[in-house]
Amino acid sequence: RESITSRRQRTFAMIKPDAVGQLGEILDVIEGREFEITQMKMVRLTQSQAAAFYREHEGRKFFEALLEYMTSGPVVAMELTGQDAVSRWRATLGPTDSSVARTDTPNSIRALFGTDKQANAAHGSDSELSATREIEFFFPSSKVVDELLPQTTAIL
Ligand code: RTP
Ligand code: MG
């Protein structure tokens, strides 16, 4: 059991389209670093879903290319839970640019499975607040209530 001083935390991770073919190897890294996969699904994002997910980058010169990339194939969305999950998962990813990652952090996911500064294999939330928003984006908690509504209506 966790002690009251530990920081068990959730983060949002996503395997991007360029790395979905290496999903098994990436899951091995995730489990080897003691993250618990507490939710997971494979989905194909629409342009507007990708734009909403990455809305903080709207207006940047790489934004259109980012949407093309993120909608080029399925992604695997995950909620990871563990000690200091937000910062530990960012560290496990390595720097944004996979070629920088190969020099600086050769065992990181972006070094091992990514290509360049765009096709970089995986995403990780940059803060606890982002993690909450991104988990809700892919795994909306209201869905449980929505599924219960028809039954409630039927009883009434
Ligand atoms: P992420 O949000 O995907 O975890 O990546 P990050 O925090 O390391 O990097 P961020 O600045 O948030 O950028 C989001 C994603 O946009 C693509 N990108 N392309 N061509 C470029 O200059 C460029 N810069 C960023 C990457 O896929 C990056 O992960
Ligand atoms: Mg980011």
UniProtKB/TrEMBL annotation:
ATP binds at residues 16, 62, 90, 96, 110, 120. GO terms for biological process: CTP biosynthetic process; GTP biosynthetic process; UTP biosynthetic process. It is found in: Cytoplasm, Cytoskeleton, Cilium axoneme. One of its GO terms (molecular function) is ATP binding. Keywords: ATP-binding, Cell projection, Cytoplasm, Cytoskeleton, Hydrolase, Kinase, Nucleotide-binding, Transferase. Its main location: cytoplasm. The active site is at residue 123. GO terms for cellular component: axonemal microtubule; centrosome. Belongs to the NDK family. This is Nucleoside diphosphate kinase.
